[in-house]
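User: Some background: our group keeps a shared notebook of sequences we're curious about, and every so often someone picks one and asks for a predicted structure to add to the entry. Today it's my turn. The entry only has the sequence so far, pasted here. Could you supply the structure so I can complete it?
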Amino acid sequence: MNIKVDREERPDIDDIYMKAVIALSGSGGWPMSVFLTPALQPFFGATYLPPVRAHGRPSFPDVLTGLAEAYKSERDKVLEQARELTHAITSEAQVDSRAELRNEVLDLSLEQFRRRFDAQWGGFGAAPKFPHAGDIRMCLRHNTRLSDHEALFMATRTLDAMAQGGMHDQLGGGFHRYSTDREWRVPHFEKMLYDNAQLLCAFLEAFTLTKKPEYAEVARGICEWTLREMQTPEGGFASAQDADSEGEEGRFFVWTRPQLYAALGEDLGRVVAAYYDVTEAGNFEHGKSVLWVPRPASEIAAQLGMPVETLLSQLAQAKPRLFEVRKSRVHPETDDKVLTAWNGLMTSALAMAHQVLGEARYLAAAERCLAFVWSSLRQPDGTLYGTARAGRAHVDAGLDDYAFVVQALLDLYESTFDEDYIRKALSLTDLIEQQFADPARGGYFTTPKDHPDLIARLKSTHDGALPSGAAIHALSLARLGLFTEEPKLIDRAFAAIHALGAAARRFPQAFSHLLMALDFLAGSPREIVVAGELTDAKTQNLLTTLRTSFRPERVVALARTDADVGLLPLLEGKHPAPSGPQVYVCEDRVCQAPVSTLEELRTQLARPRGRVTLPPPAPVP
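Assistant: Of course. Here's the predicted structure to add to the notebook entry:
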């Protein structure tokens, strides 16, 4: 029997059998073919197998013939190998990785970033280059923690290079999957929802820290692409757009000089070609060029003999015209399946975009997406489905689905102060504990208990293309603990961090989201309460000041007249002043004097916070 698995719908299956392929061949990748016994145990696996023998690789028919013969003539040997391989995969999840994580691991993380950083083009490591938004966000936190300008440079140089590169869709907004080269020039043209959600958060945080308007512009472009091209009629978000159209990768996105001249006229076309490096020879295939910005506008303006302001004005005229011309091309296909985890990430990102950019449409889209998840991706018993398409939801959700939705609910609370989002987050948090927690060794499995069709339960450990679900959940537990003043939630956050301590100490760069949770708790997080009505313009001004300041180690709540103090005890005793709304900035339930002016609030936010050591992990039973 042949079974084709969509690895985006079933990452649990992909994780298990990818480990088998890596164990057998020393490397992994996609496409992936794995051959199983009737008990679902793998006995052979490989990545790409060509239809005919080539470059030293056996053909797919050759492999089939050889495996059929081996299974027929040496079945006992094949089955024994399958059992041994399955045991190795299963044993990995039984390793106890608990170890104490101290602040020193944050310093080691920064040192690893320094060693791998490409100072000329940004990013970490060599080509191909992936966005690694979590690493960028961790560098921003390193800068704040240590006032380390090199950490800030690593983040901003990477964001600048990506924004100016061909990986960034210069006309339509959003980012392609990765860069094939060191310079971020030529991308793999597929666009993924989860990449754009994570990059949106990175650019928004960089904007709040640096106030650089270009970062806000890039963030708006991601939001507009998402709302324009990825939102489904039901309110969820599609998962991806293909790299190809009309059988060619990138055909929809690339340009030649004659195409620019035809769309814009020769004079304006010449300016645009110079700015976006569209040459006669091309920087891509078949004489075509990916639009990118390898030189500063001032240098290009000088080359063209015009003021920079004139150049920028002409570009502003040209971009919408080129976008309209591009719309007439055959568009890449969209994979319209809705994945719970990825929609959780984008809901969080759009909620943050609303907070930072003040755009109501982004919040409306985030709330609509969450409403779709809650109404259409929940099972009768309250558990989640992992995916939906064409009105049909299916597949039990995994840890990432739950963790990213909980994070989205908390971000929506901080955007709307609708306490029902906190209640929903608490209900899913309870399900995570019931379905995914490992009481013996700490941490969380990626799949729920009593999952009959898998040969192993694996753990959510390091970040990959997606953040670690366990790391995201650790931070959400900490935030929920501050909101509710519930010590057991904070204890669970500590435990979730320490559960991966041994691995994180060995290679912290692979654990940036876990270290964000560590930094959050170790940095004495603030509980900030705005006392006032959301409809009051002064309340909105105070919230805007909070939201546009880079202060990630905090939670923000609203003490309005009808607030549920039983749900959110940190609101108790916090009221507006006779003159109107005011803000309480607290640490560990100890509050500074409430302030009511923006200047006073900025002063309190600028005060340094203490750093604490996390309690050690629970002893191994």
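Suggested note for the entry: The longest helix spans residues 308-327. The radius of gyration is 26 Å.
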